[in-house]
Design goal:
The chain is an all-alpha fold and about 300 residues long. It is globular and about 70 Å long. The protein has two domains: about 170 residues, no CATH class; about 120 residues, no CATH class. The longest helix has about 35 residues. The N and C termini lie far apart (about 40 Å). The chain is built from 14 helices and no strands. This is RnfABCDGE type electron transport complex subunit D. InterPro entries: NqrB/RnfD, RnfD_bac.
Length: about 300
Amino acid sequence: MMRTVLLSLLPIVVFSTYLYGLRVLLLLSIVIIMGTITEYLWEKRRSKKVSEAVLVTSILYTMTLPVSTPFWVASLGIIFGLFFGKLVFGGFGRNVFNVALVGRAFIYVNFPEPLTISWNKVASGIQGGFGTYITNGIDVVSEATPMILFNNTGELTDIYSLITGIVPGSIGETSMVLIVLGAIYLVYKKVASWQIMISSILGFLVTSTVLYYFTDVTIANPIYGMLLGGFLFGTVFMATDPISGARTKKGKWIYGSLIGIVTVLIRGLSLFHGGVMFAILIANIFVPIIDYFVNEASKAKKKNMEVTS
């Protein structure tokens, strides 16, 4: 399962290197090393081995960061995420929250400047960023990413750029084509839940439509909004985490819908630009409750059918 996710992320890593330069690979390597050391030191006490999940967590976490994120900040994030998001709960398979997002939320709150102000231009041409360490920084922060541009000026980036991913943003969250291809591959391999993906998108589109057409809340139109920020990346690779996500069939639909709804509400009613990170973490809290009531409802229905028959 972990190797399948790694394969689905490989094209995104390569494309992000093309966009931003070789620092992507260096940042990724440092995060993987720090994450592996953290888990190794913890598991060594229990005479257990490091799981392949730490590689997936490290890559997903890195893909949510701006390429210019200081190495020490990124290292603190992955250490915090692994320790407080997984290891203290008992290690692999016991985490309540998505581990990568725990790490990102930690540095987002404690070190907001590198995650909200420092953005880099995207490379172009055949060679792209493969021949440079890092692309140039963006001076006008208000126009740094499509999401920030819309929130500050109301201007929408052209849809072609949003779909292809040739726009500034977090390292791996911009290429919608590769994200969708990754989603198809994960669903085909039966590694990720298509119910969670579809319900997240439906929850997002329905809520966006209501707020966009029937209220004064300032949000992008539903289709553009879905392509802005890291919503699709989070939906495909974070929300579908089999450990922290819902496990019952009906629970997956409820869980996914909750993520889509909360993402839109955070975008429209708070100061945060993206929303999907906090939406997934909030939904993680309700997963045990959702699955519990779904199971109880199923038992009650089965019992009633037995009594009737």
